[in-house]
Design a protein that fits this description.
Elements (H helix, E strand, L loop, with lengths): L1 H16 L25 E5 L14 H9 L1 E6 L9 H10 L17 E3 L2 E3 L3 H9 L9 H8 L4 E4 L1 H7 L5 E2 L1 E3 L15 E5 L2 H9 L12 H21 L5 E5 L10 E7 L6 E4 L8 E3 L1 H10 L14 E4 L4 H47 L4 H27 L11 H20 L10 H19 L25 H18 L1 H5 L3 H20 L7 H18 L6 H23 L8 H11 L2 H14 L4 H19 L8 H8 L3 H18 L5 H25 L12 H6 L7
Parallel strand pairs: 1-8, 1-9, 2-11, 2-12, 5-7, 5-8
Antiparallel strand pairs: 2-10, 3-4, 4-6, 9-10, 11-13
Helix pairs in contact: 1-16, 1-17, 2-10, 3-6, 3-9, 7-8, 10-11, 10-12, 10-21, 11-12, 11-13, 11-24, 12-13, 13-14, 13-24, 14-16, 14-17, 14-23, 14-24, 16-17, 17-18, 17-23, 18-19, 21-24, 22-24, 23-24
């Protein structure tokens, strides 16, 4: 009973560390201003498929440039369902307020609508509606048009694609004109919602056509400039025709070929002055999403946002910058995203390949030189230790690289890689520089602590270093815009539990076990709070993995027995905590909720199983990512066959490290819980342990190499390993 009491106390202490989550409904960083909000207002949505910031120019596109000067601007993430978004996909997403696509359609311009008196109907709408309702996003195309109709308003669509954006659930709009010059002057003020399709830039690619192998014929910059100029003249005609006080939203709402981009977002009208756009969907100044267009239009019209529309209204963050400065800064976002996209996969392959070489080289060195003494032995161990520390320093260096404006250099991708390499060297040098290098866990604690500190502080202050980062996320993929992405969570969680364990080593050696346990609970509790709070990490699955890891770590540091049943109970405690966070988040307005609040809505509405099934399917599908799977399996094999259970040399390397560091075993066990638990509950699946092990295993190797340095030659082999239950139950050894 006493042990059960200690177990319960440990779990409760971890939950108490997260108590700040429960004291109030989570807030949301950003302005409280309601830019563009005006009950009964009028909104015009101008969609210009493929429009980039590089297309805008003061002389070539004066109308659009004028909107940049007097209005609000941002990069627009247009990701819908497929990696690249087609014009019809973008317009359907505006219609639904949720990611949509033209089912079974090709990536061409939307087809011409069917006239119905003064209005029109989108062709094939029934099939489009049914197809989108059956996707994993369950989009309700026609949501925006229905909302306007229910309020007593009418819809005007100009151009074929605009019908897809303004149509109601039956696919119909009240008024239709094929081009702006065909709209009767009085009709511009007749309807509350007007959508205008300006397709000239995309049409340049249609005109260029495809070569014999089916690839897009490149469009010259001159041809693209001419197309942008034509589009600008159409925009100018619309701006001249709409009544004063109309809110105008411009969206470059699709890609062109097979490369995703960040596009142009502009807003002008009441509340949208010289500013950058932001939204709660991204929590970033200068970055908004295509689903936000729907939420913004609804707010301008003074209509309630249905729960099925997942975006957030655009808000203006005032600035004193010139139009050129705004356009240049937003173009930088696109450059950074493209550079990151071009090297991200190669980076992961190179990182895991380097670590595989490290594992193989270490195994070979230990096998051939296990009995070597003197200078050669010291050199081998030093190479092992430095290489392992450098491998562990690489992940956090990818985030610290965001402090350097590498995207403004002539070759951004090359500059990014070089920046990461230089910072990796500096972090490794820091780990080896101070007096901490003399202990088994000193150098590894520096890297683990720095990783946890950098990632934790970053998400608290807006996740600046997460975006366009090799191990973070990108708006091109649009899986995350704020908080922790799955890979960053894996690093932060493992770094947090390792730091908690190794910070507890000094008091544990001094015989102050209670203080050691308290340190674990405080650091672990902070890790839970930072990861799970919707205003910071906003990570649903992370809490499920971290809570049991911290509870088990506290019990092992306390010298108590850990059983599978207890691990399961701790996991249930994590589930209860994250559900409570989701409930609190769901109490906020629809457009202000994070994905945690939306999960609660799904749970209450009976759709939670679909979310769970979708994530489980993605998790299983992740096993097809061969480099993540290979890295995970190789790391586990290295840990077991080389460090823990060697066959060809006299002693387990880890056993020697365990004798010198009473917290190394608990730290490694907690890291394994995070890795495995994170894999099960996250849709990234095997990527979680692969990234977690990219930090945990090199640090374990570095600590083991340092233990061998301290032990020196001639140390008698350790006693045979004890049974697993005794290892977990045994109090930590006394200091040497």
């Amino acid at each position: 009973m006493a042990r059960r009491g200690v177990a319960l106390t440990a779990v409760l202490a971890v939950l108490m560390a997260a108590f700040t989550l429960l004291t109030a409904t989570p807030g949301q960083a950003g302005s409280d201003g309601r830019a563009g909000e005006r009950a009964g207002g009028r909104v015009v949505v101008i969609g210009i498929p493929s429009l980039l910031w590089s297309d805008l120019d003061r002389t070539r596109t004066p109308a659009l440039w004028g909107l940049v000067e007097r209005g609000s601007a941002a990069d627009l993430s247009v990701r819908t369902i497929t990696p690249t978004t087609c014009p019809a996909d973008g317009w359907l997403t505006v219609s639904a307020g949720e990611r949509s696509r033209l089912i079974n359609g090709n990536c061409a311009l939307p087809p011409a609508p069917t006239p119905t008196g003064r209005g029109a109907t989108a062709p094939g709408w029934l099939a489009i509606s049914k197809g989108n309702a059956e996707t994993r996003y369950k989009a309700r195309v026609g949501l925006l048009g229905d909302a306007v109709r229910r309020s007593g308003g009418c819809t005007l669509a100009v151009g074929p694609g605009a019908v897809f954006g303004a149509a109601d659930s039956g696919g119909a709009v009240d008024l239709y004109a094929p081009t702006p010059d065909r709209v009767a002057p009085a009709d511009w003020s007749r309807c509350a919602l007007t959508t205008v399709d300006v397709d000239d830039v995309f049409r340049a690619y249609i005109t260029a056509g495809f070569d014999g192998s089916g690839r897009q014929v490149p469009v010259s910059q001159a041809a693209r400039n001419r197309a942008a100029a034509v589009a600008d003249r159409h925009v100018a005609a619309v701006l001249a025709a709409v009544p004063p006080g109309t809110t105008v939203l411009v969206a470059g709402l699709s890609d062109t070929v097979d490369i995703p981009h960040l596009h142009v977002a502009l807003a002008a009208g009441p509340g949208y002055g010289n500013a950058y756009l932001t939204a709660n969907s991204t929590r970033r100044t200068g970055l908004v999403t295509i689903t936000d267009v729907t939420a913004t239009a609804l707010r301008v019209l003074g209509l309630d946002q249905p729960a099925a529309a997942v975006g957030s209204p655009w808000r203006a963050e005032p600035t004193t910058e010139s139009a050129a400065a705004k356009a240049g800064a937003l173009h930088d976002g696109e450059v950074a995203a493209q550079a990151n996209r071009s090297v991200q996969a190669v980076f992961y392959i190179a990182l895991f390949a380097a670590q595989l070489l490290l594992y193989g080289g270490t195994a070979l060195a230990l096998r051939r030189n296990g009995g070597v003494e003197g200078d050669r032995r010291r050199r081998i161990l030093k190479i092992m230790k430095v290489s392992a520390l450098a491998g562990a320093a690489a992940p956090v260096s990818t985030f610290l690289a965001g402090l350097v404006p590498w995207w403004r250099m002539p070759y951004p991708a090359v500059a990014l890689v070089l920046t990461v390499l230089v910072i990796t060297g500096l972090v490794t040098a820091l780990a080896l520089a101070g007096p901490w290098r003399r202990s088994v866990t000193g150098s590894v604690l520096v890297i683990a602590g720095l990783t946890a500190l950098v990632l934790g502080v970053d998400v608290i202050f807006g996740s600046t270093l997460q975006l366009n980062t090799l191990m973070g996320y990108t708006a091109l993929v649009a899986g995350r815009y704020y908080g922790f992405g799955n890979q960053a969570f894996a690093l932060f969680a493992v770094a947090g539990v390792l730091s908690a364990a190794w910070l507890a080593e000094h008091p544990l050696r001094a015989g102050r076990r209670g203080l050691a346990v308290a340190l674990v609970l405080v650091v672990g509790g902070l890790t839970v709070v930072i990861d799970g709070w919707p205003a910071w990490g906003s990570d649903f699955g992370g809490v499920l993995a971290i809570v049991p890891a911290v509870a088990v770590l506290a019990l092992m540091i306390a010298g108590r027995r850990v059983s599978p049943v207890l691990v399961a109970l701790c996991a249930l405690a994590g589930a209860a905590l994250v559900l409570l966070i989701s409930y609190l988040d769901a109490r906020r307005p629809v457009g202000d909720r994070s994905h945690l609040g939306r999960f609660w809505d799904d749970l209450v509405g009976g759709g939670a199983w679909d979310v769970v099934a979708r994530k489980a399917q993605s998790m299983l599908g992740s096993l097809g990512n061969w480099y993540f799977t290979l890295a995970t399996v190789s790391a586990l094999c290295f840990l077991f066959f080389v460090l823990a259970r060697p066959v060809h040399w006299r002693a387990a390397v880890l056993d020697q490290a365990y004798r010198l560091s009473p917290t190394l075993r608990p730290a490694l066990f907690a890291a394994l819980i995070v890795a495995v638990g994170g894999m099960v509950v996250n849709d990234s699946g095997v990527a979680i342990p692969a990234v977690a092990f990219s930090l945990a295993i090199p640090l374990t190797l570095a600590a083991s190499a340092r233990a061998l340095e301290i032990d020196g030659p001639g140390t008698p082999p350790p006693a045979p390993p004890e049974p697993r239950s005794a290892q977990l139950e045994r109090p930590p050894s006394a200091p040497r």
